[in-house]
Design a protein that fits this description.
The structure holds 2 protein chains of 2 kinds. Chain A is mainly alpha-helical. Chain A is 83% helix and 4% strand. In chain A, strand 1 and strand 2 form a beta hairpin. Chain B is built from 21 helices and 2 strands. The chains are: A mainly alpha, B mainly alpha.
Chain lengths: 104, 559
């Protein structure tokens, strides 16, 4: 039982990583480098779009990606911990130790 | 003594006093405290400490300057040094925290159940950190020599003494809390002049927006970036917002900086200091927010500084140039050679006519003066640059010291030593490392950011694949990992040494492998490492049962 849970959890985890890293790759390497010259044809305010993505936009996207990751993983952890008794018992013990350190 | 100097002494004195006070308050009593600050650092504090650890003299002093000379190509520093954080946060930090030891060689050694793997990792960690720490010391030297007009040697010795004090006394605990203070100092010092200049030039207080706004009438109106493109082209330089380097080179440099970021041992060990896996994830998010603040400001600073520089100096009468020009000229970081003897500065793209050379490292430091900001702002930048250099130096020195005392002595050579002895060795190691770093600070090997860029290439080619494969590929074994690390590291080191030291005259796109510059070769090293590891692994036995068990354990949720 526990093995199955672990496998399902890992699969879900890898899915999250694949989604987020695809966006990471697309924004930085594809839009910021490979397509930058093409995107420079579009402008907003004083920025050319490709230039803006390369020097500003990509960084904002990176921040958003990590924040989304934190939330998704918290949700995933919560789901799998309630499913697995042994894990949740162990987790509960640890949680009470760390609670003062980080309010959730 | 000038007013700038008085302010500088005041700010540096106050900030150093603060760091020493923190060091005394947070002395380390055990190896656990010395190596990972007792493992109880709050995610926000760890986020700030990581940001300060991470943002080095190169980020603070050199990056905006490099971007202002590279224009859009400077992007690889921006995306590379922030995008790598996504890899670190998603692929490494949570799992290494779950693993729960002290150092990167710890992980490599345990995961690959081998002393040779541990030794290779120790070697890589020490060489990467040394390359990197030299850049920091050199940055500190530049600041001291310019702002306090002491010679570089004295400057470096002052810096070393302060780092020595809190790193030796407090270990990771002292370093963590001083880094929190250093983050506050450095971000304040970076933002204040940026906001001032943005307000002056565009009327918008937010540099990230001012960067894309119209200039105020005194600066000639029109969009800042358009104007920058125009003057650049008029003077015979390339347009600022257009790329000059080959696309594949930019691609590879960006990737090398990203993989390197994720593989830097001094950044990775920061995630061993938080109380849980969840806290490791959260603190990675905080860290990138704190880093992003500086990194989105830097390109704006670069554009402002370049516009200002060209407006001020080009065709100006030499005798009438402002004060700052001559102070920087004294440090020889600006040189002017009146070739046509007309007494005016010609700053143009054509090397045959150009009369002015500006060292890239001074753009951020000189920027407030060029823009004519008040003296206290100029001095603040000096304190910020020192905070950036010292915080990173401390983190690196700790990696070197733990690599020696913990990985090399305790885990490899003399497992019988007691914790007290181990702690003493850690302190001795940090002391020796400081002396060596100080030596390189006084006899610097090259440009700050360039030197640092090599550290990234080496980290990318050695650690990144070994750690990622160790977590995501259960079948990866000792033979594959060791061969991969050695192949990746030596290929990258050889390529860099060849083009930078043996035959620098050949270092042109025509001679580079696939048009990839030495800065970007780390990506190739990463690929070679991975390919070699996967191939060797196929022909050698799978790792033992308990190691596979351990990998499964690392992947499990929570705590």
């Amino acid at each position: 039982m526990r093995d199955e849970h672990a496998r399902a959890y890992w699969k879900a985890n890898v899915r999250i990583l694949t989604t987020l890293l695809s966006i990471w790759f697309f924004v930085s390497f594809v839009c910021g480098i490979l397509l930058a010259d093409f995107l420079d044809n579009f402008r907003f305010a004083g920025f050319k779009l490709g230039f803006w993505i390369a020097q500003q936009g990509s960084i904002y996207v990176f921040i958003v990606l990590i924040i989304v990751y934190v939330f998704w993983m918290d949700r995933l952890d919560a789901r799998y911990q309630t499913n697995s008794k042994a894990a949740s018992l162990k987790a509960a013990n640890r949680e009470s130790n760390t609670d003062e350190e980080q309010p959730s | 003594m000038s007013s700038v100097q008085l302010w500088t002494y005041l700010f540096i004195g106050l900030s150093f006093g603060l760091y020493i006070a923190i060091a005394i308050w947070s002395r380390a009593g055990s190896t656990h405290e010395f190596y990972v600050a007792g493992g109880g650092v709050h995610p926000v504090a760890n986020g700030m400490a990581t940001a300060a650890d991470w943002m080095s003299a190169a980020s603070f002093i050199s990056m905006a300057g490099l971007i202002s000379f590279l224009g859009r190509d400077g992007t690889f520093y921006l995306m590379g040094w922030t995008g790598g954080y996504v890899l670190l946060a998603l692929l490494l930090a949570p799992y290494l925290r779950k693993f729960g030891k002290f150092t990167v060689p710890d992980f490599i050694g345990d995961r690959y159940y081998s002393r040779s793997a541990r030794l290779v990792a120790i070697f890589c960690a020490i060489s990467v950190s040394f390359v990197y720490v030299c850049g920091q010391m050199q940055g500190a030297g530049i600041v001291f020599s310019r702002f306090l007009e002491v010679d570089i040697t004295t400057g470096v010795i002052i810096g070393m003494t302060v780092v020595f004090f809190y790193a030796v006394l407090g270990g990771m605990k002292g370093i963590t809390y001083t880094q929190v203070a250093q983050y506050c100092v450095l971000i304040f010092a970076y933002m204040v002049p940026a906001i001032f200049i943005s307000l002056m030039m565009t009327g918008n207080p937010i540099p990230q927006i001012g960067f894309g706004s119209e200039l105020t009438p005194e600066y000639g109106g029109g969009y800042l970036l358009d104007r920058l493109d125009n003057i650049s082209e008029q003077l015979g330089f390339a347009a600022y917002t257009e790329g000059q380097r080959g696309t594949q080179d930019v691609f590879f440099i960006t990737a090398a900086l990203m993989f390197g970021t994720a593989g830097l041992p001094h950044v990775i060990i920061r995630f061993f200091t938080v109380p849980s896996v969840r806290a490791a994830r959260t603190s990675a998010a905080y860290a990138l927010v704190f880093i992003g603040l500086l990194y989105t400001t830097a390109p704006a600073v670069a554009a402002f500084a370049k516009t200002n520089l060209m407006n001020t100096v080009n065709n100006a009468v030499y005798e009438e140039l402002p004060e700052w020009f001559f102070t920087w000229e004294n440090t020889r970081l600006i040189t002017f050679d009146d070739r046509n003897g007309d007494g005016r500065v010609q700053y143009v793209g054509d090397p045959a006519l150009n009369e002015l050379t500006v060292n890239r490292d001074i753009m951020v430091l000189a920027n407030p003066e060029i823009a004519g900001l008040p003296d206290w702002v100029v001095a603040l930048v000096a304190a910020g640059a020192l905070a950036a250099a010292l915080s990173t130096a401390a983190g690196l020195l700790l990696v070197i010291s733990t690599a020696v005392s913990h990985d090399l002595l305790k885990r490899s050579l003399m497992p019988q030593i007691t914790e007290k002895q181990e702690l003493r060795y850690a302190r001795i190691a940090i002391f020796v490392a400081i002396l060596i770093a100080g030596y390189f600070g006084i006899n610097p090997p090259g440009f700050v950011a360039e030197v640092v860029a090599f550290a990234f290439g080496l980290a990318a080619a050695s650690f990144f694949p070994a750690i990622v494969l160790g977590i995501f590929y259960k079948r990866m074994n000792r033979q594959g990992a060791i061969a991969g690390m050695i192949a990746g590291f030596s290929f990258t080191a050889f390529y860099i040494i060849y083009f930078k030291f043996i035959a620098p005259e050949l270092s042109t796109p025509a001679h580079w492998l696939f048009g990839i510059s030495p800065e970007g070769i780390g990506t190739m090293g990463t690929l070679i490492n991975t390919a070699v590891a996967l191939t060797i692994c196929r022909f050698t036995p799978a790792p033992p049962r308990d190691i596979q068990q351990m990998v499964e354990e690392i992947r499990l949720p929570g705590h």
